[in-house]
């Protein structure tokens, strides 16, 4: 079970939005949780 973690910064209308994306690679390999 591999847990990858990265942060994307998106700038929209002078508002910086930080979206934290958790990607869990399991045997099924595709499980994605997205928090904004």
TrEMBL record:
Name recorded for this polypeptide: Uncharacterized protein
């Amino acid at each position: 079970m591999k847990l990858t973690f990265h942060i994307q910064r998106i700038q929209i209308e002078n508002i910086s939005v930080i979206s934290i994306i958790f990607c869990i690679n399991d045997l099924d390999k595709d499980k994605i949780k997205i928090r904004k």
